[in-house]
Design a protein that fits this description.
Layout lengths: L6 E5 L4 H11 L3 E5 L14 E2 L1 H8 L3 H6 L6 E5 L5 E6 H5 L5 E2 L1
Parallel strand pairs: 1-2
Antiparallel strand pairs: 3-6, 4-5
Length: 103
């Protein structure tokens, strides 16, 4: 049952909300993104994109840009509240068996 209403409300201005809005715009929808936080954070989170995620980033035309800005590291370590290492692993362990990966 088509109503002709192309307006969509998206809750959340993290990575998913604006990404969805961008995609919906390309298909003729009118998305509005709302966010409960008063302002954007100063920092951001480290994310990794691999497999199908790389395909999607490439479809958006952002893969080369993301690869150029990718965070380079040799290993990751997890620390307790005193800064003591409790666990960790090397970059090779993370990327093992993955065809394409961007950190």
């Amino acid at each position: 049952m088509a109503t002709g209403n192309r307006r969509i409300l998206i809750c959340g201005a993290g990575i998913a909300g604006p990404s969805l809005a961008h995609r919906l715009l390309r298909y003729g929808f009118e998305p509005t993104v709302i966010e409960r936080a008063a302002a954007f954070r100063d920092g951001s989170y480290l994310i990794d994109v691999w497999g199908t995620g790389c395909d999607i980033v490439e479809r958006y035309g952002l893969l080369r840009s993301e690869q150029e800005r990718a965070y380079q590291f040799d290993s990751l370590k997890f620390v307790d509240e005193r800064g003591r290492k409790v666990s960790g692993f090397g970059r090779g362990h993370v990327a093992q068996g993955v065809e394409r990966k961007v950190f």
